[in-house]
Amino acid sequence: LGSDHAWGGNYFMFGGDVKGGKLMGEYPNSFHESDPTNIGRGRLIPTTSWDALFYGLTQWMGITDQEEIDYVLPNSPNFG
Question: Fewer CB within a 10 Å sphere, N or C end of the chain?
Fold first, then answer.
């Protein structure tokens, strides 16, 4: 069995301390079939994993020890 859920997506963050106007990841150069991020049928490979967003969020919430971050975010070694 598989899943049709991807590992990237669009997310918005709101709050008084959020520094807005920033884009995490890279916008595709083109939506043409020759673009390397286009795998067909309207599917694009994201440049940044959705869980990479939580790396900074854990630090903002006070989790700064790498061992604790790896415990909270077990995939963190995959996105640095």
Answer: N
Average pLDDT, the chain: 78
Q: What is the pTM of this model?
A: 0.52
What are the contacts of 49-54 at 24+ separation with CB within 8 A?
49/7, 49/8, 49/75, 49/78, 49/79, 50/7, 50/8, 50/9, 50/11, 51/7, 51/75, 51/76, 51/79, 52/24, 52/79, 53/11, 53/24
Cα distance from N-terminal residue to C-terminal residue, the chain: 29
Residues 56-80: tens digit of each pLDDT: 888 888 999 989 988 988 887 776 5
